[in-house]
Amino acid sequence: MVTPRGWWDLADADLFYPDDLPADWRLSYFANCFRTTLLPAAVWTASQAQTAEQWHDDVPSGFRFAAERALMSPVEPGARQLDESALTRLLGSKLDGWLDALTDPASAPAISGGADHSLRYQLPRTEQALRTDQQRYAVVVPSKLYRDLRAARVWLNRMTELQGRSPNLIILERPTSDTLANWQELLELLGLG
């Protein structure tokens, strides 16, 4: 799956979303074009349960959410509106997995130079007991590969060699909607989408 850091995080969001589209309909609009979105920890932890229920209801059954783990527990009880177990329950089968926290999106690791700097991507706790043998990982795409899909294919093949399997989640930082669509198509052509 390929995703930006939220359906609002498109570089061309002002052009992608129609001017007269209400802000609370943007997720549904995004979900009609793309298959997944990453929920940054700062967004979902500050949300109410009703908001997560609305996210679940606003997308078709095949759409998936990936959630970034929160870096630390809240300092005070009640500092967060949602925790991992609540989000897992509220999103249900539409929650694909949990991503290790990204401390700084600009310095997020990616596989390069032969080293494995991938991010752990785990199944939701409710499914982990059933499929504990399944190893999953995510990567952040270097921005220089956004437009060079031939080089992106080579990069993806190299990651697959290094890991012994293809990534489960591919993250693009502030892509345009066209870039995201092109990457989604690339994954389908490579049999990864």
Keywords:
193 residues, alpha/beta, single chain, 8 helices, 14% strand
| Termini Cα gap | 6 Å
Within the largest sheet, what's the order of strands? Answer: 1-7-6-5-4-3-2
Beta content comes to 5-15%
Structural class: alpha/beta
Helix content: 25-40%
Descriptive account of the structure:
The chain has a seven-stranded mixed β-sheet. The termini are close together. It is globular, with a radius of gyration of 16 Å. Helix 4 packs parallel to helix 5. The chain has 193 residues and is an alpha/beta fold. It contains eight helices and seven strands.
Set down the secondary structure blueprint.
Blueprint: E1 2-3, H1 13-16, H2 26-33, E2 36-39, H3 41-44, H4 49-58, E3 64-68, H5 84-91, E4 95-99, E5 119-122, H6 125-128, E6 137-140, H7 149-163, E7 169-171, H8 177-189
Parallel strand pairs: 1-7, 2-3, 3-4, 6-7
Antiparallel strand pairs: 4-5, 5-6
Helix pairs in contact: 4-5
